[in-house]
């Protein structure tokens, strides 16, 4: 089982408790973005297109721990930007572990070998290295040569020191199933603890807008990949039902509150991928966001989204409600033949609202009015 047993049990028990308490909406994974600054400029990234004063902002250790306390999700994914540029990242990780959180520290791994000494292996802590396929696929995806080799060297160094290491893989319409399958074999050889795989989300600020997958193509691609996976020992760090959804067999609605995002703007509405507004507190986010405005079928920007930020939580909640279905699919793997589940109609979706520039202007005005302390990257 790729998700560690203690994590699966704790998260399952947490979900059951939320159901018993009658909570309609609750978080599973806190997406913590302590900074937007990165040391790469990937073509498919929509997170780094901010003016320098915003890229220089950091969430403090206290901000990060307060966000975890406020939100209460059992799992924390630390993303960005590049989290290893944050000088206080070891303290943030320590504080989250002391709170019993399961942590995935997402990184492009360029600084990983240099920083490994600052961290200790822990059963609840995993490096989550960005790796979008084999050497050519990944270096093309991050728009820089040599990054794949450095990431793989860092993965080997981290594994040698006893860390859990997963990879996070985003696929675009250039992905070839046979090459992705060979890459998955490589992750087995590297002894990785799991792969989190998703189709890329078409961020409106991503420099390359040409190569994002639509839903139909995503499902066909994942069927082609999973078909090749029988008996090859691939480990996915995702629920079996989410993989079945990627293969077109589950008709899921988005659960954006399942992975709420806290970043330097505040609590982001509605999800990790879309910044349509910001709340000051987690409670405000949950209570004042008009959730029905978002998700595939409701909003044009969500039309092609099949990303774990929105749909993994739906799959986990489905697994808790329907354990036999989950067990059946976990045992046999995603179905790769036959009719797909009907997709959600886009007939009534509202048009896209382009708000990025307004948020940047508002934030810049705040920074000019009251300069915040800046923690420069090291
Ligand atoms: S479908 Fe859900 S996760 Fe995807 S962009 Fe829309 S709100 Fe976010």
UniProtKB/TrEMBL annotation:
Residues 20-232 form the Radical SAM core domain. InterPro entries: Aldolase_TIM (IPR013785), DUF3463 (IPR022563), Hopanoid_synth-assoc_rSAM_HpnH (IPR017833), Radical_SAM_PqqE_MftC-like (IPR050377), rSAM (IPR007197), rSAM_sf (IPR058240). CDD domains: Radical_SAM. Gene3D superfamilies: Aldolase class I. Keywords: Iron, Iron-sulfur, Metal-binding, S-adenosyl-L-methionine. Its cofactor is [4Fe-4S] cluster. This is Iron-sulfur (Fe-S) oxidoreductase. It comes from Acidisphaera rubrifaciens HS-AP3.
């Amino acid at each position: 089982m790729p998700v560690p047993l203690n994590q699966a049990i704790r998260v399952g028990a947490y979900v059951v408790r939320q159901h018993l308490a009658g909570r309609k909406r609750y978080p599973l994974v806190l997406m913590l973005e302590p900074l937007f600054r990165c040391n790469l400029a990937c073509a498919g990234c929509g997170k780094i297109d901010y003016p320098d004063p915003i890229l220089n902002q950091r969430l403090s250790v206290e901000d990060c721990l307060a966000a975890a306390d406020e939100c209460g999700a059992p799992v924390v994914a630390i993303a960005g930007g590049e989290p290893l540029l944050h000088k206080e990242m070891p303290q943030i990780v320590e504080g989250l572990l002391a709170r019993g959180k399961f942590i995935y520290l997402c990184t492009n791994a360029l600084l990983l070998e240099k920083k490994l000494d600052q961290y200790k292996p822990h059963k609840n802590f995993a490096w989550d290295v960005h790796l979008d396929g084999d050497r050519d696929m990944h270096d093309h995806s991050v728009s820089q040569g040599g990054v794949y080799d450095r990431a793989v060297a860092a993965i080997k160094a981290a594994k040698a020191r006893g860390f859990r290491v997963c990879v996070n893989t985003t696929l675009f319409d250039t992905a070839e199933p046979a090459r992705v399958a060979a890459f998955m074999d490589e992750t087995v050889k590297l002894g990785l603890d799991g792969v989190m795989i998703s189709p890329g989300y078409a961020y409106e600020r991503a420099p390359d807008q040409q190569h994002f997958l639509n839903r139909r193509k995503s499902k066909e691609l994942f069927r082609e990949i999973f078909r090749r996976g029988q008996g090859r020992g691939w480990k996915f760090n995702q629920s079996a039902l989410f993989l079945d959804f990627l293969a077109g067999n589950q008709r899921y609605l988005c659960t954006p509150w399942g992975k709420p995002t806290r970043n330097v703007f505040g609590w982001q509405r509605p999800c990790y991928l879309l910044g349509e507004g910001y709340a000051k507190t987690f409670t405000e986010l949950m209570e004042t966001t008009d959730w029905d405005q978002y998700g595939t079928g409701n909003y044009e920007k969500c039309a092609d989204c099949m990303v774990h930020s929105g749909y993994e939580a739906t799959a986990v909640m489905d697994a808790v409600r329907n354990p036999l279905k989950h067990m059946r699919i976990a045992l046999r793997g995603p179905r790769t033949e036959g009719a797909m589940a009907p997709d959600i109609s886009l007939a009534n979706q509202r048009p896209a609202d382009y708000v990025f520039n307004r948020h940047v202007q508002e934030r810049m005005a705040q920074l000019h009015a009251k300069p915040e302390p800046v923690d420069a990257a090291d």
